[in-house]
Amino acid sequence: MIDAWTVTVKELIEMVSDRSSRRGLLVQAILVTVGLGILVPRSTAGLWLAGSPDAILLFRLLPPVVSGALGADAFAGERERRTLETLLATPLSDRAVVAGKAIAALMAAAAVSVASLIVAVITVNVVAAPAALFVPSWTLCAGALGGGVASSCVTTAMAIGLSLRMPVARAVQQIASLGFVVPVGIGA
User: Fold this and answer.
1) How many whole angstroms separate alpha carbon 122 and alpha carbon 159?
2) pLDDT tens digits, residue range 156-185?
3) Helices marked H in 18-93 — which ranges?
């Protein structure tokens, strides 16, 4: 478990310190937060105020975008940067490397889910008519955060699995996004 945590910390540091990955992650996080935290709650404030589970449905769909992109870059990106051999030459087990990369992607998706939920609550409080102090129930919060993390687990696993087999991270991102959007479209 310590080895997996070591890889997680390495991945989180790379996310923050690498200019191009930080920019991409920041853009995705901002878009998801604006969508989940401002646009959707603004148009569905009544559902939020009523505590309807329909208010949090999109929390299952948007945070996986972040984790899927990070999962796609997990091994294909390392291969493109020619750092995969160095990583595999460390005394870390293969399982620790995969687990650490997955945990980092899930932590990013969870952070985006939490930020989106906070912004959503603020948005509902601002646009609520008549004005009221809205504090969501713990079940609504747990559903939003749990749904975001659960669907992010599926997307991360799919993206990392593809990343292990494909040489280019961009191709993995495209296939992973299709693999997640198609079932959602069929379900809708």
Assistant:
1) 33
2) 998 888 888 888 888 888 887 777 666 556
3) 19-34, 40-43, 45-50, 63-73, 76-80, 84-88
